[in-house]
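Q: Make up one entry.
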Amino acid sequence: MRHRTVQDLMTHTVITVRAETSFKEVAVKLADHGIDAVPVVDARDCPVGVVSETDLLRREASRPDPQGHLTGSSAPAGGQGESAGELMTSPAVCAQPQWNVVEAARAMDGHQVKRLPVVDETGKIVGIISRGDLLRVFLRRDAAIREEIVYDVLDRTLGIGQQALHVAVSEGVATLRGSIEPPALHSAVLRLCQSVDGVVAVHELPLDAPAVRPGSRR
């Protein structure tokens, strides 16, 4: 079994800024490249933070309302600053190229971020990965997912023949029909099938249950 890694899914060409980059320069980079955040790097190209549209808007929200509608305590609290270094969220939460999808997803969820700069062993930025990049594994064809389950998981890894366990995959949902022998392999079969990239869920049915028609999604 081969799991897709951060290196497989990340964007390799990264738009970055320095701490001294001005507010306006950051806004221009975001607009020109159609992105909503940019890593802030030091002189060694190591990420020290991330500045996003949210950070820029928070700074704007802290300014006095020109029409005087928000005054005193009703004015939103926001960040002050004129440069990326003053506005960024720091420290940067980073990923490593060898991480799998689960590791990257847990880091994003745990830190409530939408993207992770990817760094090599020296801490230098080599890419960036977003939530959308991680979701690309679910675009795999059903036929490819079924082939990996049948040949890599059941046959090569566990030694279970196709005659004993029938597999169908539709819209990323894998359905196993039959009995798993020996029963001690039951949890291993489910765990490994669930870990296949692109699998949304794994269902079990007895052998005499109606067959599930494989999906035709491309």
Notes: The longest strand covers residues 47-52. The chain is about 30% helix and 20% strand. The radius of gyration is 24 Å.
